[in-house]
């Protein structure tokens, strides 16, 4: 029986070990090079490449050793899987600022109308 973390990785459709192995092959990096960069013994990379999931600190080390950001790939996969329904920092700052400026403009307009209405009511009395 698969343990829970590997089953969850299968459900997510992500296999970090395969992603890392694919990068090694595409960049023509030897396993010995990466093992040295990770500061681990020669056989340590093989279990990593067989893992569909791994702890954050280990993925961090692999990202640094390979000079590649797997966290970005995971974030993109999450966005695709969740259909962009998760609230996160995915919207670029310029879009957030534009939305807030529009909201501010609308609020100022509403405030102006309310102020005029109050002035009109005050002048009636």
Question: What structural class do helix, strand and pairing data support?
Answer: mainly alpha
**Mean pLDDT across every amino acid position:** 81
Strand percentage lies at: under 5%
Shape: rod-shaped
Major sheet size, sense and barrel closure: none
> Percent of residues in helical segments?
over 70%
**Low-confidence stretches at least 5 residues in length (pLDDT < 50)?**
none
Q: Cα distance, first to last residue?
A: 81 Å
- CATH topology label of the largest domain: 434 Repressor (Amino-terminal Domain)
Number of strands: 0
**Please, how many helices?**
7
Number of separate structural domains: 2
Q: What is the H/E string?
A: HHHHHHH
Radius of gyration: 26 Å
- Assembly context of the chains: single chain
């Amino acid at each position: 029986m698969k343990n829970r973390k590997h089953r969850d990785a299968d459900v997510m459709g992500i296999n970090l070990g395969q992603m890392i192995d694919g990068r090694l092959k595409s960049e023509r990096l030897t396993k010995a090079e990466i093992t040295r960069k990770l500061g681990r013994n020669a056989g340590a990379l093989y279990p990593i490449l067989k893992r569909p999931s791994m702890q954050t600190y280990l993925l961090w080390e692999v990202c640094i050793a390979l000079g590649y950001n797997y966290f970005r790939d995971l974030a993109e996969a999450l966005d695709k899987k969740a259909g962009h329904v998760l609230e996160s920092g995915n919207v670029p700052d310029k879009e957030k600022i534009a939305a807030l400026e529009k909201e501010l403009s609308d609020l100022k307009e509403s405030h102006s109308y309310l102020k005029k209405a109050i002035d009109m009511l005050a002048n009636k009395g």
